[in-house]
Design brief:
The protein is mostly helical. The chain is built from 4 helices and no strands. The chain has helices spanning about 10-20, 35-40, 50-60, 65-80. The radius of gyration is 13 Å and the shape is globular. The model has no long low-confidence stretch (mean pLDDT about 85).
């Protein structure tokens, strides 16, 4: 999938399964190469909690329009953002 939650490291899944409500919803949809967390700057060595929050927001608000918006912003911010790599 192009848009969706990024996969998490297996050792962290158990930790978040117990401590983050609805965390396992992330595993019910296909992983993507980009998502709300990435376009909002939560990538790499950033807050796992914020990434999870964005992933759950994406799942709850999913629409074709949201996917198109995320894809566009991935391209746009990837070209202009100083932290893009």
């Amino acid at each position: 999938s192009i848009v969706g939650p990024r996969p998490e490291r297996p050792e962290l899944i158990e930790k978040f399964r117990e401590s983050v409500p609805k965390y396992m919803l992330r595993h019910k949809i296909k992983a993507g190469i980009t998502g709300l967390a990435q376009i909002n700057g939560w990538r790499g060595n950033t807050s796992l909690e914020e990434r999870i929050k964005c992933d759950l927001e994406y799942i709850e608000k999913w629409s074709l329009w949201l996917d198109l918006k995320v894809m566009w912003l991935t391209i746009w911010k990837g070209l202009i953002n100083k932290n893009a790599y």
